[in-house]
Write a structure and sequence with these properties.
Blueprint: H1 2-6, H2 9-20, E1 26-27, H3 28-35, H4 39-52, E2 55-60, E3 63-68, H5 75-82, E4 108-115, E5 129-135, H6 137-151, E6 157-160, H7 162-170, H8 174-181, E7 185-189, H9 193-202
Parallel strand pairs: 5-6
Antiparallel strand pairs: 1-3, 2-3, 4-5, 4-7
Amino acid sequence: MIEQLFGSKTRVKLLQLFYGNPNRQFYVREITRKIEEQINSVRRELSNLLSIGIIVSDSNNNKLYYEVNQKYKYYSPLKQIFGEDNVSIKPGNAQNSSSNDNPLSTIGHVDLALLTGQFTRDEISGIDFLIVGEINPNALAKYIAEMEQKENKSIRYTVMSLDDFKYRIEIRDRFASNVLNSKKQVIVDIHGFLNKNIKEEAE
């Protein structure tokens, strides 16, 4: 039914991909691989979404990247429809995740996890994946290996304890500050670190 409402199966898949991954950019062949649709159909629907203003594009290193336009006037209602449970690594509710719905619970107790770097094309932090919490090293290694295979790229990641991360924030550690200020996609943030950071900057 939703495919009939929004015009095509490819368009619906694209909306799920983009709204499920705010702040993340994708190039055409990456998109076709993730949504498993023909490239001609993908190109046609990307052109439609661009003309409407739902997505925006940016060229870099001879590749054209696309991402959801968060300034689009209907961004919020569309995100409510397409943004939940549709992301590539199933982040769940980024701001209100608990241990019961934490998508990374298989690797330990995760307090904060986010994607940045090559996922959002922002190299300020120098990493792609940050995980904060009590993590099982073997389970994490397996998770990263599967993630690298799925994303078809090598992933730079950093793991630290919750106490270490809190201390780094308190002393305004350069690495922690760069991560918090980078363009990012939040997977888990059960303590609302990012909300706190936004409020502090506004005060």
